[in-house]
Write a structure and sequence with these properties.
The chain is of the alpha/beta class. The chain has two domains: about 5-210, Aldolase class I (TIM Barrel, Alpha-Beta Barrel); about 225-285, no CATH class. It is about 45% helix and about 15% strand. It has an eight-stranded parallel β-sheet. It has a two-stranded antiparallel sheet with strand order 9-10. The longest helix has 22 residues, at about 300-320.
Length: about 325
């Protein structure tokens, strides 16, 4: 498969593993890269420049193919050492950075100086246009279906991706609601250069999360997510459990930021991801969870996605009177 994304990043398949807090580790990222996509490790998960260096060295030992490092630019009560992260990335020869959270303007010169390509993730067209003006190499636009942070606009992926393709000159990656080859074919038909997946990759054998969480992913439907934190201007789509529903109720009753922060702690999420306590805290989850019910290896998943995309193309060619590939 050949798109501007595959050419930009040296990929065989235009699929990117989105940066996932706590989940984006070397083993999963390497598996995605080895299967022809773009694997991403998440610097925020590692916490320190020294730990990030170790993870980068680990992924370099697992694959010789391109990979990315996510840099989290979201506001945080604990300062994120992104400048130190970038120094490590430059020293270790990381080829690609995924940035997300706010404008990458402050760190873009450092990344460019190091020869690192930059893919910036945004939840809206105006942010995408700003990123293009600043000089990023590509943008990922994520609609309301996405797990994690979909933004405040309530615009779905279908409209958002098409609008981005209309407005931008740089490659566009579609995010939010993708889990199979039919979604990949749809994104390419809209004019996107590839797709980003997070939730689907969490349900693979290489994702080091607790079996209880993966069992939840297998039985969940598209109705098993909800959006928290709208009241504080920082919406987040998470898995539906009693803990999340309690937070949503508190928000509706007017809870303050100070009252909500202890409930949103990443420490609570650790028990969900790695101990399997599905009521201990919140965990990011996209609506694409309703599109699958198995736990394949990354290689099996990627091969299946390519087959499904080909099936979708054949169907379209049949509809339009073609003979098929």
């Amino acid at each position: 498969m050949k798109t501007r994304l595959t050419e930009l990043c040296g990929l065989q398949i235009p699929i990117m593993l989105g940066g996932m807090y706590l989940v984006g580790r070397a083993e999963l990222a390497a598996a995605v890269s080895e299967a022809g996509g773009l694997g991403t490790i998440t610097s925020k998960t590692l916490g320190t420049p020294e730990a990030l260096r170790e993870e980068i060295q680990k992924i370099k030992a697992l694959t010789k193919k391109p990979f990315a490092v996510n840099l989290n630019l979201f506001p945080s009560t604990t300062p994120t050492p992104n400048q130190a992260f970038i120094e490590v990335m430059a020293e270790e020869g990381v080829p690609i950075a995924e940035t997300s959270g706010r404008s990458p303007e402050d760190i873009l010169p450092l990344l460019k100086e190091a020869g690192i390509k930059v893919i910036h993730k945004v939840p809206g067209i105006r942010y995408a246009k700003t990123a293009q003006r600043l000089g990023v190499d590509a943008v990922t636009v994520v609609g309301q279906e996405t797990g994690g942070h979909p933004g405040m606009s309530d615009v779905g992926t279908l409209v958002l991706v098409r609008r981005a393709v209309q407005e931008l000159e740089i490659p566009v990656i579609a995010g939010g609601g993708f889990a199979d080859g039919y979604g990949l074919a749809a994104a390419l038909a809209l004019g996107a250069d590839g797709i980003l997946m997070g939730t689907r990759f969490m349900a693979t054998k290489e994702a080091h999360v607790h079996p209880h969480l993966q069992a939840f992913l297998q039985r969940a439907t598209e109705n098993d997510t909800l959006v928290l934190q709208r009241s504080i201007g920082y919406p987040s789509r998470v898995g539906k459990n009693a803990f999340a529903e309690d937070i949503l109720k508190r928000e509706e009753e007017g809870a303050t930021l100070a009252e909500l922060l202890p409930l949103l702690s990443g420490k609570r999420s650790l028990a969900v991801y790695f101990e399997g306590d599905m009521e201990a805290g919140i965990f990011s989850l996209g609506q694409s969870v309703g599109l699958f019910a198995d736990i394949p290896s990354v290689k099996e998943l990627m091969e299946r996605i390519v087959r499904e995309a080909e099936e979708a193309l054949k169907r379209l060619q049949t509809i339009f009177g073609g003979d098929g590939p």
